[in-house]
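Re: duplicated header lines in exported structure tokens

Our pipeline writes sequence and tokens for each protein into one text file. With two proteins the header for the second block appears twice in some exports. Here is an export where it did not happen, for reference. First protein block:
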Amino acid sequence: MLVTTKGRYAMRLMVYIASFSDRKVALREVAENEGISLKYLEQLARDLVGAGLLKSVRGHGGGYLLARPADEILAGDVLRAAEGTTVPVACAALEDDGVGCPRESECSTISFWAGLDNAIESYVDNVRLSDLSA
């Protein structure tokens, strides 16, 4: 899987916030310390809030908090929220109707892509945010 800037920055944002579990974190602070555009972080934060990974607190002293403890958030959760999927090739993904690649029955490489997808899923779903923020 090719992790885009969106996925990389989402991981950095989540790890940064996880390292300050005792307080709300302003995106401006993350932008300054991580060298990421504030506008980009705002877009990422929206996706992460929508996925139930972050909570937004508005008003004076507001900011962002993890929606769950860091040891309950998987790297895979963050990557799927940012990227939409972790599949290594588009043909390995199921369509919205639950149907896979139309060439699946005659594809000589389908088992390779399925194995790679399983390896990726296994890895990203066994790394917790707490492992990265410690």
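Second protein block, exported in the same file:
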Amino acid sequence: MINLSFLLNDSKFVGKPVMIMGLARSGIAALRALQLQDIEIFVFDDDPNTRKAAEELGAIWVDNIEDFDFSALAFLLLAPGVPLYAPKPHRICELANKVNCPIISDIELFGLAKKNNSIIVGITGTNGKSTTTALCEHVLRELGKDAICCGNIGVPVLAVNDNQNTIYILEISSFQLDLCPSFRPDISVVLNITPDHLDRHGSIQRYIEAKATMFDGCNTAIIVSNDKYSKKLLKLVVAQNTILTTQKELPIPTEGLPQLAGSHNAQNITAVYHICKTIIPDMKDSDFRAALENFTGLPHRQEIITSNQQLLFINDSKATNADASAVALDTYKNIYWIAGGIAKAPEEFDKLINKYKANIKHAFLIGAAAKDLEYYLKKHKVGFTQCEILENATIKAVKTAKQDGLDGATILFSPACASFDQFQNFEKRGDAFRDIVKKLTQRISA
């Protein structure tokens, strides 16, 4: 657990209580770390069912935030899922801002606490953050370094071991960066920027500015995309060393890596290569390539569930927008595509389907966005079947693919939509697909 004893010696914090808003994984980790410093901790959550867990850890539950004195706090630690300013600030943010109470994230607190010989790597971007973060941890460990991934992936940052010489690799969202006024990693990485979460940021410019904060004054900035929004971010970057590169400049081959297939993963590999080369200047390219070869990939991100002579099953449930599905549709051919859920931007289906229609043999539609998808599939003359639910879609996709008898056919579950119409989250959705495929393939092989 990260040592937060600096709070007891800093005049901005000493003797003052703190409040935590939001008691999911990161909030509980923050509560545990703060509680060790004998700091008075207030907590609030829109879900009253979290009260018991908070009080068992010694926190004081706030029943009515309207009557609370936010001016007395050292800071309000806000969960990243709580709206800070758009589409409408949560009431707790309005009350804190009214009295100039600092609003920060657990990552900001982590950055303030880290003063030893550790290295902090921050990875952000619209798509690919989790795979890149996990791959970076894997490669560095294979190369003999003490590395751990945390933040949005793995353990919350305040729950990791507080060791000297550790390399902390943080997956960081724009929501968290909005709450990091001073956090600056030693190595800051942006993979790509496409319009996303604009309901929370209000505009693409504010989204870019949120991403840009962690580059302001960092030691090394790594930018691995030449998309137009990354170019705008580049103008805001102030770093001691800036590496601007693309996968075309990568000095190692990326073929023959099934768990890292596709141009998007070439981009992820490029980012990891430059991170590792910055940390280990004498790294051998052959050692880096060898480390890639035994990476097993992450669940729900173009996860290869199973394959046989006729069909390849891919679980890409993490693809919650059109841009994320684009990379999967670009990676495979003869695709029997299962898609649908809650569309973030239905108009994005138009460009997506038009660009990859040659790869899509048939689409199988589920969830709230099924009619929107149908409209654009009809427009671009791509065959489809309305299936309502995931199990029906998977069964029909397998049946259709077997009837067509194509070599190298892929059953691709890449929804291009959020999951919340039918599933609790994308993980539950992906688990459901994996279970359905397992039952189907057992039946096929029986």
